[in-house]
Amino acid sequence: MEAPFLLLILVMSSSLVQNTVELATFSSRLIHRFSKEYKEVRVSRGGDVNDTWLPEKRSKEYYQILVSSDLKRQKLKLGPHYQLLFPSQGSKTMSLGNDFGWLHYTWIDIGTPRVSFMVALDSGSDLFWVPCDCVQCAPLSASHYSSLDRDLNEYSPSQSSTSKQLSCSHRLCDMGLNCTNSKQSCPYSINYYTESTSSSGLLVEDIIHLASGGDDTLNTSVKAPVIIGCGMKQSGGYLDGVAPDGLMGLGLQEISVPSFLAKAGLIQNSFSMCFNEDDSGRIFFGDQGPATQQSAPFLKLNGNYTTYIVGVEASCVGTSCLKQSSFSALVDSGTSFTFLPDDVFEMIAEEFDTQVNASRSSFEGYFWKYCYKTSSQDLPKVPSLRLIFPQNNSFMVHNPVFMIYGIQGAIGFCLAIQPADGDIGTIGRKYSRNCHGKCRCSLNLQLALRKSYI
């Protein structure tokens, strides 16, 4: 990474001394970032000569850039400015049921003047996009959705005074090579896991409106610049009620909102989400969790830290820990249920079936394999599921099931696990809310979302 002002070049020279002992002496030559020599060095290392703009020495632009770099360095030295940040309309999240794909949503304000968007929260992706200058978008009228009491909004960069074009030459423009020239707007196109589901458009920079503080009543307003996908064209599930007003990717990559906030020195490089049994929840940017919180290291995928993948060393059902039950899994708030590699799924499910005190059954319309009848309106005692991580850290799922209801109330329950298609599993939301009613407990998702590696 380039230093803000100076490029340090180390030159090594050596000389022979008595007893033929070779000693190395090191010297350094400092090259100013705005010097012609720096430009030559950058070009020699593969940089774009047209992208290596130098302000005129002692000009207004020259001093503006120096001051801007100074401020960024001060933020890094002094630590994050805020302990917690959350959307200006509050930290609450909600799930609106089948109409909206069972995802969790929050309201976020964008631009100047601010416009509100109800965005889905997804730790399995990175880009934050909203419907924008629409060519093909989901319906935004409340009349299309049974659980909405107000219309959804469409973003237009031309209507926001704080919106800025993101050019094809920007380092975060992944599709820059497809541009005819470096100054045109950066396009984006993302395909998601669900078949034929995608979003495409142009990248822009604008501000999101956040608040700081320990709760939703005593807070300070914060305007944070981020990169936003101007989603002109959506397809698949995004036209059928899933994330009709946009999606906030919360992944590890630089383009995600948590990464932008951390790089700006506003928060620690972390965030937390949790979900209650009633499908309400909270999101906090910069949340480090309690000091007693257990943690797990992220794993690399194809040699890089690209998403929230953790390694499970062993799986226990009740008091029985199963041999050869290790696996890797993606922690994904955009997935409802938990999916495990097929061999691990069968071991856990069979052990659960052995221990549970209920009769195996099937229910019309439910394709889960391990389901059971119940004669009580309350969930009977079921064995817990414990996932063991490195350094003997563990994650306990106290009730790894979901209830099935009929006309008269509860009629059964199913083990909330499905077999995965491949070797990597997914830990979904249903296993991320076993907090015994305390939403801020160690955030079951935060087990993986804290960006610190063991």
UniProtKB/TrEMBL annotation:
Record keyword Signal present: yes
Molecular function via GO: aspartic-type endopeptidase activity
Pfam families: TAXi_C, TAXi_N
Active site residues according to the UniProt entry: D122, D332
One of the GO biological process terms: proteolysis
The keyword Hydrolase is annotated on this UniProt entry: yes
Entry keywords, A to Z: Aspartyl protease, Hydrolase, Protease, Signal
Gene3D superfamilies assigned: Acid Proteases
Matching InterPro entries: Aspartic_peptidase_A1, Aspartic_peptidase_AS, Pepsin-like_dom, PEPTIDASE_A1, Peptidase_aspartic_dom_sf, TAXi_C, TAXi_N
Record's signal peptide: 1-19
Segments forming domain Peptidase A1: 104-450
PANTHER family linked: ASPARTIC PROTEINASE-LIKE PROTEIN 1 (PTHR13683:SF743), ASPARTYL PROTEASES (PTHR13683)
Similarity remark: Belongs to the peptidase A1 family.
Protein name, entry field: ASPARTYL PROTEASES
Species classification: Eukaryota, Viridiplantae, Streptophyta, Embryophyta, Tracheophyta
